[in-house]
Structures are given as C-alpha cells and as structure tokens.
Design a protein that fits this description.
This protein is mainly α. It has 2 helices and no strands.
Length: 71
C-alpha cells in the first residue's frame, strides 16, 4: 500500500471503528436485551475485521498508529 493511501485510510478506519462501537451503546439503551446481545455479537465481528485491517496498516506504517493505541 502506498503511504499516501494509508494516511487517508487510517483515520477513516478509526472513525468507522468508533462509530460501530457507538451503535452497540444505542442498541443497549433502546432495544431488548436479546436484540442487544445479538447485535453486539455481529458488531464485534465487524469490528474484529476492521481491527485486522488497522493492524496490517500499523505493521506497515507504525508511525501512523495513534499514541492512544500504543498502550
């Protein structure tokens, strides 16, 4: 992957990851427990795949990893 492409993709992936995570809070607050548990599992799968993409990107370009992710 070209560095310029990675620099554009990285913040979008981070934002998308955060937004999917926020949707689980919406489900928890506004839906039944059963629906929330099902949704959370599906959201976790999506987030896992997104994390895989982010991990690959950070391995290739470690300097793009935010400080908050390094802990």
């Amino acid at each position: 992957m070209k560095r310029e492409v990675a620099q554009q993709i990285e913040p979008v992936l981070r934002e998308a990851f955060s937004l999917v995570n926020k949707t689980t809070a919406i489900s928890k607050e506004q839906d039944s427990e059963e629906a929330f548990v099902e949704y959370r599992g599906e959201a976790a799968q999506v987030m896992g795949q997104m994390f895989f993409l982010m991990e690959k990107l950070y391995k290739e370009f470690p300097d793009l990893m935010p400080e908050s992710f390094k802990d």
